[in-house]
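We emphasize that the prediction below concerns an isolated chain of 173 residues; any contacts that depend on oligomerization or on bound cofactors are therefore not represented. The input was used exactly as deposited, without trimming of termini.
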Amino acid sequence: MKEIIINDFNLRDDEIEERVIRVKGLILHSNGKILLAHNNNTYQFPGGHKEDDESMNDCILREVKEETGIDVELTEEPFLCIRTYDNNYFGTGKKVLNSIYYYRFFTDEAPNFHETHYDELELATDFNLFYVNFSDLKEFLQKEEQNGNMDSNIAREMIHVVDEYVNLFGGVE
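Result of the prediction step, given as a token string:
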């Protein structure tokens, strides 16, 4: 598994007050599209926070199901981890090391909104799912970030993921 470190604030590990572990799923369709989530004024790959008592693999399966209603099959370990040192995590003033593990899934199953379980923030911020051509994803993210339609840190992170995915796997075909 490849690891990317983002440490714009040059924080040391002994300065970190909290460690957050999250998982994200690249959900790829056989037609060359990828499923994205949009809420809280930004785009993301479906996923979320690992709970204390669960494994990483259980976490990604739970999060994909909660956000998409799709039961995916786990056939491989994460292909990438991005560790971001943050000096002011989501405006809390905390120094946090945020580790996000990225998995890939192949399914032609459509989102099933009867099976989703959104949290309060997702419900309050109009959580939506939609497909984008994987071959257009990087350009889409750059355009949305430039137009102010998504968080620039999340855009940078997602572009890293797309670049690494293409480096590792060459595409979705």
